[in-house]
Recover the amino acids of this structure.
């Protein structure tokens, strides 16, 4: 989803595609929980994936209804969840304002920021599968190619064939949308157009994804928790190359 703005380059003025971004408020059972800056598309997927990856619900069956209300100032996504899930929200009640989908903004303590990681069954990803997925990733970056300002998260089968993809101005949002759309089933892997941060690894594990492949680098915390969870973590995935990460080697300070 893009809009256009007039830009001047040299002595020429022309319309240029820009990615859509607006405030998306997530409400659970009528109570405001989070406001994220996001691309206002695939918002039912976003709400579902966010609810799963943030541990608000245990499964999709605990989400009863999703209503989307658009207005001039942004979008409100009203999510009706089971009583047990709503009780969990109230226990850890917080207001969280994110910048382009930063999942940690607004947390109030270290314990809340670094949450327990869900164990997953590691998935082996072949070099051929990575090559196939990387070579076709741009085909699923419609907004990204038009604007240069959108991330994509894709789900690839074991042979590297991409079967599902979602875009967003925020990398966390793109992964949440992918999770909400149904990624994580089977022996495939998630492919992201960004770095692999702690939050991306945590979301992948929460969805039961066994392998995360990033086109950029992972962070030290992402490597640590991926090893603890059993997640296969691959970075710098480019045509003809990639790196698989294991336990960190720490030097004495």
């Amino acid at each position: 989803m893009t809009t256009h703005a007039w830009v001047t380059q040299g002595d020429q003025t022309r319309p240029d595609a820009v990615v859509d971004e607006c405030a998306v408020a997530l409400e659970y059972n009528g109570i405001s929980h989070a406001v994220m800056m996001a691309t206002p598309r695939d918002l039912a997927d976003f709400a579902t994936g966010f609810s799963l990856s943030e541990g608000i619900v245990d499964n999709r069956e605990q989400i009863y209804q999703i209503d989307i209300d658009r207005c001039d100032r942004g979008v409100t996504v009203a999510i009706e969840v089971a009583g047990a899930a709503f009780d969990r929200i109230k226990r850890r009640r917080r207001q969280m304002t994110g910048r382009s989908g930063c999942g940690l903004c607004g947390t109030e303590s270290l314990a809340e920021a670094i949450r327990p990681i869900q164990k997953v069954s590691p998935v082996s990803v072949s070099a051929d599968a990575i090559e196939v997925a990387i070579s076709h990733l741009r085909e699923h970056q419609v907004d990204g190619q038009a604007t240069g300002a959108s991330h994509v998260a894709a789900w690839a089968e074991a042979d590297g064939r991409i079967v599902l993809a979602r875009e967003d101005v925020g990398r966390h949002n793109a992964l949440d949308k992918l999770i909400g759309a149904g990624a994580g089933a089977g022996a495939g892997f998630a492919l992201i157009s960004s770095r692999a941060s702690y939050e991306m690894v945590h979301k992948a594990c929460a969805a039961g994804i066994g392998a995360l492949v990033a086109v950029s680098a992972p962070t030290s915390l992402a490597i640590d928790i991926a090893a603890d969870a059993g997640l296969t973590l691959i970075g710098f995935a480019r045509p003809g190359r990639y790196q698989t990460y294991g336990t960190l080697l720490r030097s004495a300070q």
